[in-house]
Amino acid sequence: xxxxxxxxxxxxxxxxxxxxxxxxxxxxxxxxxxxxxxxxxxxxxxxxxxxxxxxxxxxxxxxxxxxxxxxxxxxxxxxxxxxxxxxxxxxxxxxxxxxxxxxxxxxxxxxxxxxxxxxxxxxxxxxxxxxxxxxxxxxxxxxxxxxxxxxxxxxxxxxxxxxxxxxxxxxxxxxxxxxxxxxxxxxxxxxxxxxxxxxxxxxxxxxxxxxxxxxxxxxxxxxxxxxxxxxxxxxxxxxxxxxxxxxxxxxxxxxxxxxxxxxxxxxxxxxxxxxxxxxxxx
Length: 282
Ligand code: NAD
What we know:
Elements lengths: L5 H17 L6 E6 L4 H16 L3 E6 L6 H13 L5 E4 L9 H7 L11 H8 L9 H12 L8 E5 L6 H10 L3 E5 L6 H6 L3 E4 L17 E4 L3 E2 L5 E2 L4 H4 L13 H20 L5
Bound molecules: nicotinamide-adenine-dinucleotide.
The site of nicotinamide-adenine-dinucleotide has 25 residues, from α10.
């Protein structure tokens, strides 16, 4: 088995960020808005806050209960857009059902859109222009593949899942890396024929054991983005890891694969936005 250890790669990215940040008098500022009651989101936000603090960033988390109005979130976003101490704004998704997610994301200043979800940043990415920030999970996946020197140019890459936060931007990034990308989704016919012929499979569906051993050709690189919390409390991915680990060329574990890379990319985005806003370059 050849494991792609996202935890180790993320650790070295975070160490590098800390080193870069230590030379700056002013510290990068991250604002996080949590407006939902989802347990997983609370855990993600706590861990983002903790890591941000450990890097010496200035992080502020705004937690709202269900009585929050669209107007209150909008005022906060306007305030944060104008605040020179805040370089990155993150709205943890999903939001409470009564809130209009698209309107809120579009109100974030694209220059502070640390998740890279704003239509301007997505548009820039699709045009091959440099976005202010690139979506964290796709960015982290490319970094992980590169850290293990997985060839992308000319390779057949199957991305499973077409969400705006993972599948679609990932397909764009891979295309920019000269990979030949197929984007599969819930309506795709005969997924197995696609997985069998792919050099690299990246699954982001949230369906445990969607990818089974009979779907994999020996040596295929398998990246598991899925996270599903089991009744026992443990986390599982989309891939039947135990049965596939000795067939795959490289494989990511869940947890410890893509998850840590997402957080490391988020922190890198905070620093990059800070540097852009303060006209500092690496
Ligand atoms: P989503 O629910 O928005 O999208 C899921 C996608 O999977 C859809 O495009 C759907 O068409 C596709 N799909 C569903 N069933 C399928 C099937 N049987 N065959 C083929 N395609 C199918 O989800 P999302 O927000 O993109 O997240 C996907 C998964 O990745 C979730 O488990 C989520 O928790 C996880 N995730 C992990 C990270 C990380 O950092 N590791 C980050 C974001 C999301």
